[in-house]
C-alpha cells in the first residue's frame, strides 16, 4: 500500500508486503455534531488520491472488544464531507456500520451477517453517487448503502480505524485495490 497519506497517523503501525497492521490510539474517531454535539476528526485514515470516479476495496481483519471499536474504509473530500464504513461494535454486537457526513454525520447500522473479524469492503463513487458493498468471501458483494455523495475532482480513499473509548484495537488491512468504477448493475453482486 505505497503512496498513501496518513490523516492522524497511529503511534503504532507497520507495513510489510502490502499488509498494514495498525494499533489504534485512545480517543480516535470521526464524527460531526449529530446527537452527540461534538466534532471529532482524530481517527486513523490512510488515504490514497483518486480521480473523480473510482472503485476501492480492502480486506479488514480485527478483533472488536469495546463500544465503538471500528475498522473499514473511508472516502473523504474534506473534514466536513466524507463517509466511513465497515464493522463497528455497538451495544455488545458487531454491526455493519456507515457514517455519511455532509456537514453533519448520520449513522446507519445493521446486524453483521458474517464473521466480523475478517471481511472485505468496497466503495464506488461516480457521478455524485456512493455505493458501498461488503463481502465475506471476496466473491459476493451485497449492497450496504447507496447514497448521494459530493462531486469532486478528486477524493482520498483507503483504510480507516477508530477507537473512541479506548486504545489498542489491532487491525490488519490487506488486498487494497483502487481502479476505475466497476460500472456493474446495482444487483450484480460480483
Automatic annotation (TrEMBL):
Top-level taxonomic group: Bacteria
PANTHER family referenced in this protein's UniProt entry, alphabetically: REGULATION OF ENOLASE PROTEIN 1
InterPro entries linked to this entry: ConA-like_dom_sf, DUF1349, UCP022704
Protein known as: Regulation of enolase protein 1
One Pfam family recorded for the sequence: DUF1349
Organism: Rhizobium subbaraonis
